[in-house]
Write a structure and sequence with these properties.
The structure holds 2 protein chains of 2 kinds. By secondary structure, chain A is α/β, with parallel strands linked by helices. Chain A has 2 domains: 5-329, ANL, N-terminal domain (Rossmann fold, 3-Layer(aba) Sandwich); 337-430, 2-Layer Sandwich (GMP Synthetase, Chain A, domain 3). Chain A contains 11 helices and 20 strands. Chain A has helices spanning 11-32, 34-43, 64-69, 103-119, 138-149, 162-171, 181-193, 198-201, 216-226, 341-349, 386-404; strands at residues 83-89, 97-102, 127-130, 153-155, 176-179, 206-209, 231-238, 243-249, 256-258, 263-268, 282-288, 299-305, 307-308, 320-321, 332-334, 337-339, 354-365, 368-377, 409-413, 428-430. Chain B has 2 domains: 2-68, VC0802-like, CATH 3.30.2130.10; 70-138, ACT domain (Alpha-Beta Plaits, 2-Layer Sandwich). Chain B is built from 4 helices and 7 strands. In chain B, strands 1, 2, 3, 4, 5, 6 and 7 form a 7-stranded antiparallel β-sheet that branches. Classes of the chains: A alpha/beta, B alpha+beta. The A-B interface holds A 377-381, 383-386, 389, 411-417 and B 6-10, 36, 38, 40-41, 43, 62-66, 68, 97, 115. Chain A: This is Phenylacetate-coenzyme A ligase.
Chain lengths: 436, 139
């Protein structure tokens, strides 16, 4: 099923909608959001200069750092009383990136999520178990609301507690699972360990995955674990743009359809910032159209992909983005949570007993991401007892948990045992190959 | 009073040898050594003839090294002697964090080294009970 007629419009009509909304959006941000007005003035662009879609590239970029510099709500375009929902994701340093929604924004957002749920095969008959963590992250409540919109029955399970997850899958006749792909694989394997055969014993038929990229080898594994007829798609979004609902795979599995009447995608060379033609690999830049609370123009997502404009066999005419092929920056996605090494650094630098050098190792063990941070011990007072060293490890873990919302493993080593770098340090080793 | 040195070592082949080789190069004599079975890192504890110089040599080579006070007790090799000493400490409600032993050369009595957070109190109750405490100079 196709949720909205805007998904099947001829190219010229999509572009006409985009141009109208773009002009309104640029006028709106210039009038209402000072940081945008300052940037546009500095670049010598006025709202009236936007006459064609190509004029988009005259506008300055917006960066993750702009959220940090205008924390918490300096990029907002409406008064607080118009906000009906806040969400937040990890920032590049200690402070989170806070996003807000007006009543209209929520409606637009959840309609866009409804579209991608339909792209992935969901219908009003589905019983959907949401196994994303609830809280300030947009994933859980986004899919939750979108699936409710199409009339599916939603179970707000949240993440963790594998036994309860399995009990609900069995007892409630769950047909649709929302999770990160790595958690879905972990859950599937736990189910098989308990002697349950998902193909025979469960009604699960659809997986809507997000929060982290799903590679083709992961999709193959998904079919091994959940069965060959399992419909397994992924979708794309980030909280700054709205959360999930920016793009999603249809069951033809040929890229993720972008909801182009709400988002204009561009691909740029991240170094030269030059806009690249369709089909070329580069950094995805997104302009949100018609958002009230938090309009966003030319947002540098950091995600590397390419765009395809040919109509799809599913009937949709919207542009498709290829499954992500990495990041232009050093952001890590750990169990669906965005992590910047700078956030970790900020925590470590406040702990006097360890040195300034560190290494981050990311592995996937038993399908789940494990992050180990190696630090150098420098304070000899801790050698009085093992308890003091263990206490230091626990203290670092607690500080990281409160900063990142993630459990980490800490490894203490002797001073000078970590590699020193001249110039840009390579402190992150990611051993997750194909996400498996 | 005996000054013990503690050295942070990682749990990997050769890590203890790196410590002993620094001490050998510096002509420091090791009297006693103790480590415990731990998964990732260890604390190597040593009694040496020149603890301050040992710390300087090891620190110069990048080791995290600590010198701290421990109590050394000379016990005659007779049944029940260790038990008796531990009873004195227990009666004094003194917690022993760890204990290890060595024998001073030339056939003298074994020495028990132990560490406690109540150093002064431990020293006091042992002296009152006439237990023979060993000093750095006697090693």
């Amino acid at each position: 099923m196709i949720w909205s007629k805007e998904e099947t419009l001829p190219r010229s009509e999509i572009e006409a909608i985009q141009l109208t909304k773009l002009k309104e959006t640029v006028r709106y941000i210039y009038d209402r959001v000072k940081p945008y007005r300052d940037k546009m003035d500095a670049a010598g662009v006025k709202p009236d200069d936007i006459r064609t879609l190509d004029d988009l590239r005259r506008l300055p970029f917006t960066y993750k750092a702009d959220f940090r510099d205008n924390y918490p709500d300096g990029l907002f375009a409406v008064d607080k009383k118009e906000i009906v929902r806040y969400h937040a994701s990890s920032g590049t340093t200690g402070k989170p990136t806070v996003v807000g929604y007006t009543r209209n924004d929520l409606d637009m957002w959840l309609n866009n999520v409804a579209r991608l749920a339909c792209m992935g095969g969901a219908t009003s008959d589905d019983v959907a178990q949401i196994s994303f963590g609830y809280g300030t992250f947009t994933g859980a409540l986004g899919l939750h609301g979108g699936l409710e919109k199409i009339g599916a029955s939603v179970i707000p399970m949240s993440s963790g507690n594998t036994n309860k997850q399995i009990m609900f899958l069995q007892d409630m006749g769950v047909t649709l699972l929302v999770a990160t792909p790595s958690y879905a694989l972990h859950l599937g394997e736990e189910i098989r360990k308990r002697g349950i055969d998902p193909e025979k014993d469960l009604k699960l038929r659809i997986g809507l995955f997000g929060g982290e990229g799903m590679t083709e080898p992961m999709r193959d594994e998904m079919h091994k674990v959940w069965g060959k007829d399992f419909i397994c798609t992924q979708n794309y979004g980030m909280s700054e743009l709205c959360g999930p609902g920016v793009a999603g795979e249809c069951t033809e599995l040929c890229g993720m359809h972008i909801n182009e009447d709400w988002f204009i995608p561009e691909i740029i060379n991240p170094e030269t910032e030059e806009v690249l033609p369709p089909g070329e690999l580069g950094e995805l830049v997104v302009t949100c159209l018609g958002k009230e609370a938090l309009p966003l123009v030319r947002y540098r997502t950091g995600d590397l992909t390419r765009l395809m404009y040919e109509p799809c066999r599913c009937g949709r005419t919207t542009a498709r983005m290829e499954n992500l092929s990495g990041r232009a920056d050093d952001m890590l996605v750990i169990r669906g949570v965005n992590v910047f090494p700078t956030q970790i650094e900020e925590v470590l630098f406040k702990i006097d007993e360890i040195g300034p050098h560190y290494e981050i190792l990311v592995e996937r063990k038993n399908r789940l991401d494990v992050m180990t941070i190696t630090v150098e011990l420098i304070d000899d007072r801790l050698l009085d007892s093992y308890a003091k060293l263990s206490e230091l490890e626990a203290r670092i873990q607690r500080a990281l948990k409160s900063q990142l919302g993630l459990a980490t493993q800490i490894r203490l080593v002797a001073p000078n045992s970590l590699k020193r770098f001249e110039g840009k340090a390579k402190r992150v080793t990611d051993l997750r190959k194909d996400g498996l | 009073m005996i000054r013990q040195i503690s050295v942070f070592v990682e749990n990997e082949p050769g890590s203890m040898m790196k410590v002993t080789s620094v001490l050998t190069e510096s002509h420091i004599n090791i009297r006693a050594i103790s480590t415990f079975d731990t998964p990732e890192f260890g604390i190597m504890r040593l009694v040496v003839d020149e603890p301050q110089r040992a710390k300087e040599s090891l620190t110069a080579k990048g080791f995290v090294t600590r010198v701290n006070r421990v109590i050394g007790v000379e016990l005659e090799d007779r049944k029940g002697n260790l038990n008796q000493m531990l009873k004195i400490l227990a009666d004094g409600e003194i917690n022993v964090n760890y204990i290890y032993s060595f024998v001073i050369r030339e056939g003298r009595a074994p020495v028990m080294i132990f560490h406690t957070d109540d150093y002064e109190k431990a020293e006091k109750v042992l002296k009152e009970a006439d237990v023979k405490l060993i000093e750095d100079t006697e090693l």
